[in-house]
Amino acid sequence: MNRTDLSCQMTQNLRPCTPQLTVTNIAKTRNYSRHVRCKARHRLTTHFLQILFAVIFFFLVFGVTQADAQNAAKPVNHYSYLGSHNATASYAYGYITQNSQRYSVTTQLDGGVRMFEIDIVYDRPDDVYEAGVYICHCGQAPHSYSASELERAKGFKSTIPLPAWSAGAFYGRFYEVLSEIDSWLIANPSEIVFIMPQNNNATTAQFDTEVSLARLYTRTYIKPSNQQQWPSRQELINRNERLIILAADGNDLVGSQYANPKGSIAFKGLVSPEMYGGEKPTGPSAYESSEFTVMGNFTSSPTDAITARIYNDYDEMALRMYDWWNAGHSRAPSFIQVNQAQVGQALDIVNQLNGSDYQITAAFPKDPAGDWIVDASADIGKWFYQAGVDTGLWFEQAAKDVVSEVSNFVTGGPAKAGSRSISFNNQAGYVAYMTVMYMVDETINGVTVPMPKVMTTADLTAGFTRSIEIPYALTKGSSIQVFITAYGTFENNVYSTTVSPSFSGNVCYKAWGTIFDTEGGSCN
Q1: 328 and 283 in contact (C-beta within 8 Å)?
Q2: Residues with Cβ < 8 Å from 381, sequence gap 6 or more?
């Protein structure tokens, strides 16, 4: 310590210490002043940042808490859900002639579907099977040959059952579908599922009896009549009331122990084009806040698989949502109904509408035969439909009778002397098979009607040939349809043609080319 510093230290209690103004001390003084100013600025900056962080933290916490509170109170019908139109009119349940869906309800749930529109009918099929509520596709055709169904179908577009169309390959019960959904809900405790039954004739008592057979673990929710708003998702999840049945088209279910009566559904359809799935909306209704609004993004056609590729496309659905908002709706539709839910990007649209409030990460399985199944059913359905229009005849019996008649012949050439056949020869660098469809007349219950027969070869690799025997007695005026289909190629539909029903001997078709360029045609 130098003298000046010591002098200052000694006299600091008496007067301010002023060091001598030397060059060194002047420099020290300037540095000290700069240090003091820097410390002051540092303290101010620190205080400012502390205040700023506190404000940001407050708004973040308050904002998140407020958003959480709003989401917690958001009614369940104010979210958007992917809906499956004619959910059980599916290939999975034997609707092989015409189907609106490809997969079971379990696979649809795994793929992101949360609402099922299901056609139901009370029937004692063919007056043989057990009476109960059955799944069907029978709004314009009888479910079976029971006396009650034939009576109900008077005046319908078809007065006799359509094979694999109005009923599946077997007569499926509604309670079995409910059990399937319930099992999925048990495995997914944070999800809610909705069912919109299109009730063709079941009474409330018949419906409730059917539901009771499912022995549901998941509780159903019925909104009290004096309650305007629906509960939140979280409230329903907490109470395990995660299955909501909403009476839609057809007979009402007033007084049901399990289903909400009509009045909760508002079919809004689209502005343009007008869809089969609902009416054109002219704007929101006064009660829309308490309704489940439905946008039917599909059209009625025997070729549901083809039209789904258009209507389920992301860009097309985005245009439909533009129409929706333009109609004056203040919130997105509760349900967006589609055909063939595995086709397109409908779930992407639903997730975008919900934002971070509710997201579903899901995907349908990669099914190498799926595209063919859907496309073929569309083609076959279109052919059946046209045949019915042309002949004035519709087709009878459930698809189980079709399936029982399907035969595969795995030897080359005609199966026996005097018979005729259609052969498939695979010369391609991919696996392929042939499907043949024709019509024969059969008499059931005294009524002669055309009956479809669909047969396929085995899956063939290069160098193999298989044949299918074709009977001579075919339905008058009908033709024979031939399809060659490939697996794992850029274009799976290799070739299709029509064969004259009067052909004799053996007709042969072949496939050739690569997975990038599939080709097919006559063997000659």
Answers
A1: yes
A2: 97, 98, 99, 165, 302, 303, 304
DSSP 288: G
At residue 283, does pLDDT exceed 70? no
Q: Could you tell me if 163 and 69 lie in one domain?
A: no
Phi, psi of 427 (to 5 degrees): -115, 15
Query: Is this structure's pTM higher than 0.85?
Result: no
Does 193 lie in the same domain as 96?
Answer: yes
In a domain, 4, yes or no: no
User: Is the separation of the CB atoms in 346 and 336 below 8 Å?
Assistant: yes
How many Cα neighbours within 13 Å face the side chain of 110? 13
Structural element, H or E, at residue 33: helix 23-73
Contact 487, 368 (CB under 8 A): yes
Domain assignment present for residue 179? The answer is yes
List b or e across 364-388, with b for residues whose CB sees 16 or more CB atoms inside 10 angstroms: beeeeebbbbbbbbbbbbebbbebb
Q: Examine the pLDDT at 372 and tell me if it is beyond 90.
A: no
Coil vs helix vs strand at 464? coil
SS3 144: coil
Count Cβ atoms below 10 Å from residue 68 Cβ, excluding itself.
10
My answer on whether 345 and 462 are in the same domain is no
The domain boundary, picked from 43, 73, 103, lies at 73
Both tokens assigned to 298: 């599909």
Number of independent structural domains in the chain:
3
Q: List the beta bridge partners of residue 120.
A: 135, 199
Asked whether residue 25 is assigned to any structural domain, the reply reads yes
Statement to judge: residues 443 and 510 lie in one domain:
yes
DSSP string of 59-101? HHHHHHHHHHHHHHHSBGGGS-EEEETTTTSBGGGT--SS-SB
What DSSP designation does 460 have?
B
Check whether residue 79 and residue 141 sit in a common domain.
Answer: yes
Tokens of 230: 């629906």
- pLDDT tens string 28-70: 444 444 444 445 445 545 555 566 556 555 555 555 455 455 5
The runs of H, that is alpha helices, within 216-291 are 233-238
Which domain does 35 fall in, by range? Answer: 20-73
